[in-house]
Amino acid sequence: MRVTMTVNDVEVTREIEGRLLLVHFLRDTLGLTGTHWGCDTSNCGTCVVWLDGEPVKSCTVLAAMAGGHQVRTVEGLAKGAELDPVQQGFMQCHGLQCGFCTPGMMMTARALLDRNPDPSEAEIREAISGQICRCTGYATIVRSVRWAAVHEANAAAQLTETTESPAVGEIDNAGQPAGSPA
Amino acid sequence: MTTVHERVDTFHDNDQKPVGYGRMLRKEDPRFVRGRGRYVDDVQLPGMLHLAILRSPVAHARIVGIDTSAAEASPGVKAVVTGAMLAELNLAWMPTLSNDVQAVLATDKVRFQGQEVAFVVAEDRYAARDALELIDVEYDILDPVVDARRALEPGAPVIRDDLEGKTDNHCFDWETGDEAATEAVFARADVVVTEDIVYPRVHPAPMETCGAVADFDAVDGRLRLWSTTQAPHAHRTLYAIVAGIPEHKIQVIAPDIGGGFGNKVPIYPGYVCAIVGSIVTGKPVKWMEDRSENLISTGFARDYIMRGEIAATRDGRILAIRTNVLADHGAFNGTAAPVKYPAGFFGVFTGSYDIEAAYCKMTAVYTNKAPGGVAYACSFRITEAVYLVERIVDCLADELGMDPAELRLKNFIQPEQFPYTTKTGWVYDSGDYEPTMRLAMEMAGYAELRREQEEKRARGELMGIGIAFFTEAVGAGPRKNMDILGLGMADGCELRVHPTGKAVVRLSVQSQGQGHETTFAQIVAEEIGIPPADIDVVHGDTDNTPFGLGTYGSRSTPVSGAAAALVARKVRDKARIIASGMLEVSVADLEWSKGAFHVTGDPGKSVTIQDIALRAHGAGDLPEGVEGGLEAQICYNPSNLTYPHGAYICVVDVDPGTAQVTVRRFIAVDDCGTRINPMIIEGQVHGGLTDGVGMALMEMIAFDEDGNCLGASMMDYLIPTALEVPDWETGFTVTPSPHHPIGAKGVGESATVGSPPAIVNAVVDALKPFGVRHADMPLTPSRVWDAMRGHAQPPI
Fold first, then answer.
1. Fold agreement between B40-142+209-257+264-297 and B300-476+640-788
2. Keywords on this record (chain B) (predicted)?
């Protein structure tokens, strides 16, 4: 069958089998391998992408069902060379180790911040509770999302000419790292 | 948020500053956050085919016949291969890492549910799976052996009748310590406590399952294999032995790996199938297992049925520890452990205590379950050993009516006793246990927690405080004692400094998320003064890295980290000679300071490492006898393991109405010697603590009486999410390793080892009002409920 959808703002049309899963369409057909495949049963969330702005597990969505809809993947999170604050937060707060769950976690985090710009720790944990990370123990993921929230708030405040320094610590790799007594 | 407590007064001189650049961001993250990581399943080659494996639906059966004709006729199918076909190529069986053999594809019998029976190679994933449905296998069902306790009963079905003369399910016996001396101490002890303690079967379940892409070029006889491996070099050697392809014609590439935890140490039949698939079809072939395949067929962990005994004086002096273990190794002994250590490093079950005698007797058996045994960040069975000793010490505290912290403090090996030889022969390199324990108690507010508990108990509320103190043994070799199938456990490292002063360091170990690209750059940076940003770290590709045994058992920093520091010092020694020529002074008149050689007494006269690099490759003269270039290579053979330690305190609340356990707080104080990147260390600890919550409260690979795996998906095998774990409270002390060049010890598995006993001890402590002294993992609500009512049962 023929399916047309918009992926990361680009319209794509492909001839596919009706049973093709969205995760395989994105990875194998379009070559967007940032979205991962982890469990087949909607438990691990490493395949989370957005369907019309809502996070969905693409291992349990048929590609055909995305026809006519807007899909966004991790490859569509940054604005060109400028990383989304969520991506920056994950780097700043060690929100990833092996990186496999990271794209799904970031997509969920971005969707959370879009509807709740100042989530509590409990709200962040609830939001990512349908996803599994085996490396980080989640605390640094929570911090990463908070980092993004605080920095977005600060950026918005700066637009209204308020200059307040970020509430969350930052490490600068270019110079001497913060917190290093060396 | 997590608080990090530092105790500067426990630091030694070389720990006043972090190695390299301390808490710096990871160099690998920019690609991961953009979705630009490159994992095995991301590899796409022109003309690539897909492989799927048909697995046994039953635990034990004789194969009567296999009909592949319908599958071969299925659309898109390029090849269908059975065990009989592999047998003709002498490839039906392969050696395991424990010198046993394992079927690549079953020929005579299937021996566990999920065992590989046949494979299909087709044009896409879906076509390959379709064809699996069309393979008709006739099985003659046999009685399975599921309960390890019954495996050696007379008349039990013999699983391994492939082994010549095999008439039972005995796998191996092993013992350590002094049986007679231990018995003598037990005979005169005031107090003896005995407890049956089960560590059930669990699974590492990394987010990325196992898989491979094999590309065999028939013209030049070269095999390229991208695979999910933690040990690319060891795998290459074994493929050369198994497949008969010359080793120099094999390139094993471990690209980004989505978590390993020991699950990616063994060679699985699927990897060999992918290689055969590519040879047969002449095309690149991808095999990627699904989650169920990962859970039912790849390396499990634990499955130890233990009896622990502890002898002590009435006033709380621990005298001896004795244990008897029944180990379930599944259908093939696929344990990944050094050959001379069939039980891994279980011998450290004497823990952190100065005792008079110890003895362990172990019997391992075959059962109709998946093979494996050493996985899930267990540091070669130290997880089981630490769980046993830390559980039995708590049972002793209960018997004596002593506080468990006080009992531990009273029995620690003292700092002046190091290096300390245990009663089972392990030489602990360094340790200073009491400050670590005291810091954890201070961070937890231990006395206040006990007061709170007393008040709550008076109100009928169930709160528990659990303590665990562990010593690990990590960083295998030395090679004379430790090898895997004859390959000595040592690691190579190569460092090249380019003319412009940038560098590349090549490692034999491989990262599965540990951040090697960052920490190894930091180690080299500290030694040679080139910033980490200017040092590229190459790993996970046998064509481009020196030989070594790989990343598992927390051995990267203890072994390969040492290699990186020493190879950098070797380059620095050469740089010193070149500098002496450039500055026209003798080598003895030069002082090294952060990236430059200075003339003693004339600090203005100096050359940087970048100046020296240019000279080493330049047109100018070099000192007599010095070759051009600035590079070195070494192979590091560690003189001993490193022995990190830690003190963990867990606080739980148990709902008296539902028996649900909530981990309210977890305090982890780790001592892994010199700390290279504290951010990465804390991340490793956090991950291990989460594993501990999973194993203690949720995770178990169970089987029914027919040998059906009951943990075959993430709907059945429960792994902690963000809602089941607390925020972590971490702290540290620093006791450097005396034999490691920078004083570092391994840390990757410390928290997985140390946290399960802390959590179980906390739950048992909470259940004290019910007279509970022990309850086995996983402490699910139903199992806790049973324990509260006095009928706790072992999980297996």
1. no
2. Molybdenum, Oxidoreductase
CATH architecture of the domain with range A85-159? Orthogonal Bundle (1.10)
Q: Where are the alpha helices (DSSP H) in B263-373?
A: 269-281, 291-297
Which tens digit of pLDDT belongs to each residue from A40-76? Answer: 999 999 999 999 999 999 999 999 999 999 999 999 9
Query: Taking the domain B300-476+640-788, which CATH number applies?
Result: 3.30.365.10
Which residue in the block uniquely carries the two structure tokens 């080299």? B524
Q: Which of B128, B268, B127 is nearest to B209 (CA)?
A: B268
pTM for this one?
0.96
The continuous run of DSSP H or E covering B591 comes out as: strand B590-593
Whether the Cβ atoms of residue B764 and residue B775 lie closer than 8 Å to each other: yes
Confidence at residue B600, expressed as pLDDT on a 0 to 100 scale:
96
In terms of DSSP bridges, do strands A70-72 and A48-51 run parallel, antiparallel, or are they unpaired?
Answer: antiparallel
The total number of residues shown for chain A amounts to: 182
Closest-CA distance, B172 to chain A, in angstroms, reads: 33
CATH class of the domain whose range is A2-76: alpha beta
pLDDT at A164 over 80: no
Q: CATH number of the domain at B491-636, please?
A: 3.30.365.10
DSSP B496-529: EE-TTS-EEEEESS--SSS-HHHHHHHHHHHHH-
* Annotated domain spans of chain B: 40-142+209-257+264-297, 300-476+640-788, 491-636
Residue A76 region, left (φ>0) first, then alpha (ψ -120 to 50), else beta?
alpha
| Chain A from 66 to 95: CB within 8 A of any B CB | 73-75, 77-78, 83, 87-88, 90-92, 94
Please, which residues 703-722 of chain B have a Cβ atom closer than 8 Å to chain A?
713-715, 719, 721-722
Domain ranges of chain A: 2-76, 85-159
For residue B215, the SS3 value is strand
Assign A152 a pLDDT band (cuts: 50, 70, 90): very high
Our CA-based measurement puts residue B27 at a distance from the nearest CA of chain A, in whole angstroms, of 9
Interacting residues of B480 by C-beta distance below 8 A, sequence separation 6+? B488
Query: How far is the CA of B345 from the CAs of B418, B624, B760, in angstroms?
Result: 19, 50, 22
- Which positions in chain B touch A171 (Cβ < 8 Å)? 23-25, 679
Beta bridge partners of residue B227, listed in sequence order: B212
* Yes or no: domain B40-142+209-257+264-297 corresponds to CATH 3.40.50.360: no
